[in-house]
Write a structure and sequence with these properties.
Pfam families: SSL_N (PF20067), Str_synth (PF03088). By secondary structure, the protein is mainly β. It is built from two helices and 18 strands.
Length: 251
């Protein structure tokens, strides 16, 4: 069971900060999830399966993970057209993208091409990925990503939330060899993931536990984990380091 939620006072007091934002492409795109900012370029994935590059408030390039003659027309086609979620910059105009249904892709906006580097149907410890969610980069050749559930896909995510079985995982992938391995398991709706500045540990959001866990993949604590932050005032999704790397943004 969860503890009583924290009182919304002090730093948690309600505010209107998000009412003062600038809206980009309002009404033109649906479901932008994770974003990558590279100077004047912004990249994001949409509910219709597209991954787009935005410059100056306009869509300048579009890449689909699934080739199809007719355009994707919304989230009801996610299993067919894909649903790009977490993404990070790998190098220059190369973006590594995790798709909830399909797997992990490297998308090159310079050549306007893509290639799959991990198929979601690949069994790891006897189980295929059902709900790939977020990703982060350790190096040009190694990435870490979350699998939210062994039981339900994204379209049935409410069943995972209600059931609270705790079957989420963190997976590491070496791109050059395709070798993948499970680093963490038994997580409650593993969601956002972020490698910390020490380059020896990561944090991962356990959404249905309203907490963030820390796992050490290197150093003297390698293979151990601990609670990083608990009893959050909401259900944590994406995690991203601040620009100065002194704090973490939690959405």
């Amino acid at each position: 069971s969860l503890p009583s939620p924290p009182p919304l006072v002090g730093p948690l007091s309600p505010n209107d900060f998000l009412t003062k934002i600038d809206r980009v492409l309002e009404g033109e795109i649906i479901g932008p999830e994770s974003i990558v900012v590279d100077g004047e370029k912004v990249y994001t994935g949409l509910a219709d399966g597209r991954i787009i590059q935005i410059v100056g408030g306009r869509i300048t390039k579009t890449i689909k993970l699934v080739d199809d003659k007719r355009p994707a027309d919304g989230s009801e086609d996610e299993e067919k057209f894909g649903r790009p979620l977490g993404m990070r910059q790998l190098s220059d105009e190369k973006i590594v993208v995790v798709d909830a249904f399909l797997g992990v892709f490297i998308v090159d906006f310079e050549t306007e091409s893509k290639r799959i580097v991990f198929d979601a149907k690949t069994p790891l410890k006897g189980a295929e990925a059902r709900f790939l969610n977020d990703i982060d980069v350790i190096s040009d050749d190694e990435v870490l990503f979350t699998d939210s559930s062994l039981l339900y896909s994204r379209k049935d995510s409410m069943k995972e939330i209600v059931g609270a079985r705790g079957t989420g995982r963190v997976i590491s992938l070496r791109i050059s060899t395709g070798e993948a391995k499970v680093l963490m398991s038994g997580l409650h709706f593993a969601n956002g993931i972020q490698v910390l500045p020490d380059r020896e540990s990561l944090i991962v959001a356990e959404m249905t536990r309203s907490r963030i866990m820390r796992y050490y993949f290197g150093g003297v604590k390698e293979g151990t984990f601990e609670e990083f932050c608990s009893n959050l005032p909401g259900m944590p999704d994406n995690l991203r380091l601040s620009h100065n790397e002194n704090s973490v943004w939690v959405s």
